[in-house]
Design a protein that fits this description.
Helices cover about 35% and strands about 25% of the residues. A hairpin with a 2-residue loop joins strand 15 and strand 16. It has about 400 residues and is of the alpha+beta class. It folds into three domains: about 100 residues, NAD(P)-binding Rossmann-like Domain (Rossmann fold), CATH 3.40.50.720; about 70 residues, 2-Layer Sandwich (Dna Ligase, domain 1); about 150 residues, ATP-grasp fold, B domain (D-amino Acid Aminotransferase, Chain A, domain 1), CATH 3.30.470.
């Protein structure tokens, strides 16, 4: 029942947050977007009934949470949903500041901590029977003598948890990085915050994911997907993906991991399918970048989450559309350019063919304005790349790193 229910959504700076705002508004909820910048995707969308500018939780949890508490009282909000890892952690730590009338989309702080710490996830995966690539912890004081650690290269480097504070105290989110040798690992890790990182051997395979909503460790519904192309092409996220039929064995292990974690809320679990084996590579405990693909497959995960928080019994999806497609336009063009440069012209040309019904993370015919935000980010990325080429200072990755 959606009439008269007000939902406040954070994370509209990213693809997943925009998809959630659209999904909840289309489900009939009075949806407000809490954003950290007026140039965010959700701030430009026509779907929220209003936009609320709040402090960035990366710069401090309490000001962010207090802004949401004040807004919840002023707007008579029924549900508050975190859209990023940082927002999730901040809300979980300060859940007691909200009145009992507000349903918060958070688990207890210890559960959130377990869900966002990569090493703990490895233990959970082992208990659930999901393989994990061999993982080695590297401390900062070991960077000068990496050769003594007997690491396998090429490798993938990750931070020990989803968000780590830098020297200024600002929380920084970073994904996984491909490194070809010890020198490159030293350079990448040295530029990341924290005092330790995780290193895993680089494995080739297909990026597969299972997304869903859970209640106290029980998965209510799940959607399976695979990435046909990713960006960056060595260690990135889906630039072109599609829903696939459920795999019974995969879903069984996913359900067991969610049960081990005791998770409540939306989630996405990513595995790398390498031959006949699958390896856990990430667990996203919030809105994720390809959320629009589940919606295109006719499963409204944010709506199910809100129904759960309101004490209703969500109706699990009887099934979902297999073959629904998703394309992140700019990233997919980059991925196809790499294919073409490597000589795979036929694959690149096939990728250019339009597919009716393909959804996109930002552009939508019934909500076109947010794409202007994307073009602004493209211009900044292009300017940064040009500056780097003509001899500017070394830049630490892309200017825009979407969810």
């Amino acid at each position: 029942m959606t009439a008269g229910v007000t939902v406040l959504v954070t994370g509209g700076e990213h693809f997943g947050g925009l998809a959630a705002v659209r999904a909840l508004a289309q489900a009939g909820y009075e949806t407000w977007a809490a954003v950290t910048t007026e140039s965010s995707y959700a701030a430009k969308s026509r779907f929220p009934v209003g936009r609320l500018l709040v402090p960035d939780p990366a710069n401090g949890a309490l000001p962010f949470v207090q802004a949401l508490v004040d807004a919840a009282g002023r707007l008579q909000v029924d549900v508050v949903l975190p859209g990023t890892d940082v927002a999730l952690t901040a809300l979980a730590e300060h859940a007691d500041l909200f009145p009992a009338s507000v349903a918060l989309g958070v688990c207890p702080p210890d559960t959130v901590k377990r869900a966002t710490e990569k090493a703990v996830l490895s233990d959970l995966a082992a208990a659930a029977g999901i393989a994990v690539p061999p993982t080695q912890v590297i401390a900062r004081d070991e960077l000068d003598n990496l050769e003594a650690l007997d690491l396998a290269f090429p490798a993938v480097v990750k931070m020990v948890r989803s968000d780590v504070a830098d020297r200024r105290g600002t929380l920084v989110h970073a994904g996984a990085f491909y490194v070809k040798d010890a020198e490159e690992l030293r350079e990448v890790a040295g530029g990341l915050p924290g005092e330790a990182w995780l290193a895993q051997p680089f494995l080739e395979g297909d990026l597969v994911a299972v997304a869903g909503v859970a209640s106290e460790g029980t998965v209510i519904t799940a959607v399976h997907q695979v990435a046909d192309r990713i960006w960056p092409t060595d260690c990135g996220g889906s630039s072109y993906g599609r829903t696939i039929a459920p795999d019974v064995a995969r879903e069984r292990t996913v359900r067991q991991l969610v049960a081990e974690l005791g998770w409540t809320g939306i989630f996405q679990l990513q595995v790398l399918r390498s031959g006949a084996r699958e390896f856990l590579i990430d667990f996203n405990p919030r809105f994720y970048g390809t959320l629009g693909l589940a919606l295109a497959a006719r499963v409204n995960l944010p709506q199910l989450w809100v129904e759960l928080l309101l004490g209703e019994t969500p109706e699990p999806a009887a099934g979902y559309k297999v073959g629904a497609r998703y394309r992140a336009q700019l990233n997919d063009l980059r991925a196809m350019a790499v294919l073409a440069r490597s000589g795979s012209w036929s694959a690149a040309l096939r990728g250019l063919l339009p597919r009716p019904g393909t959804c996109h993370p930002v552009f939508a015919w019934n909500d076109p304005v947010p794409v202007l935000v994307g073009w602004g980010r493209v211009r900044r990325t292009a300017a940064a790349a040009t500056f780097k080429v003509v001899g500017g200072r070394q830049l630490g990755g892309e200017v825009d790193k979407p969810a």
